[in-house]
Amino acid sequence: MSQDEDAVFAEQARLLKRQFDPVMTEPIPARMYLRQPRWIGATRAAIVFAAGIAVGAAPGLLRDAPATAAPSAAAQAQALPVRAARAHAIYAAEVRHPVEVEAAQQDHLVKWLSKRLGTDLKVPLLTTEGFELLGGRLLPGADGAPVAQFMYQDGGGKRLTLYVTRRARAEALTAFRFAREGNVSVFYWIDRDLGYALSGDLEKPALSRIATTVYRQLEP
């Protein structure tokens, strides 16, 4: 290469350096460091899209989700004999305090329990079945509602209890039904505004007969 050619290349190098050195030496913009790969942007878009679908579907899911079901009328009616049988098992076993108010104060007992339940109560007579009234007491029922319990006893010391409660709104009228809780047999029914349960450690036919006697006396 001749001396003249060397001079030409040297001049071209000087001109290129002067032209591009400011660009080559300027700092790299921060946005270049923060620029994300394309696949990250695509992934983010997919996530946002999926979230949008979920949010859009949420109202429908909430609207269609069944609310917690209230106890059915059948379930509430079935709870009546259970409560009555358990109350019978507790108080029928009492020797000294089976009742709160004795039969000698029957008028006071009936007025007191009628006032607490907000309805006029009747006390069936079961002397024809061999049972005499011992008395009664006030009990807490479902949701703390007041309940009347009347207790009867025969000559052999066997006891029956009549459990009377106000009918809950969801409870439907029922004919005689039989249930058993442990050793306690129960005939129960719901009539007008009241629920009744006759409980005792008796065979089903005997208890059914006495329950029929109770029902007939409670009918207006």
Describe, in short, the structure shown.
This protein is of the alpha+beta class. The chain is 46% helix and 24% strand.
Task: Explain what you see.
There is one protein chain. The chain has 220 residues and is α+β, with helices and mostly antiparallel strands. It folds into two domains: 3-64, no CATH class; 73-218, MucB/RseB, C-terminal domain (Phosphorylase Kinase, domain 1, 2-Layer Sandwich), CATH 3.30.200.100. The protein contains six helices and seven strands. Strands 1-2-3-4-7-6-5 form a seven-stranded antiparallel sheet, sandwiched between helices. The chain is rod-shaped, with a radius of gyration of 43 Å.
Topology:
Layout: H1 3-25, H2 30-34, H3 38-64, H4 73-91, E1 101-102, H5 106-117, E2 131-140, E3 146-154, E4 159-166, E5 174-181, E6 184-191, E7 194-200, H6 204-218
Antiparallel strand pairs: 1-2, 2-3, 3-4, 4-7, 5-6, 6-7
Strand order of the largest sheet: 1-2-3-4-7-6-5
- CATH class value of the largest domain: Alpha Beta
Run of helices and strands:
HHHHEHEEEEEEH
Average pLDDT works out at: 78
At the fourth CATH level, what is the homologous superfamily of the largest domain?
A: MucB/RseB, C-terminal domain
Shape: rod-shaped
Give the end-to-end Cα distance, rounded to a whole number of Å.
135 Å
Give helix % range: 40-55%
**Number of DSSP strands?**
7
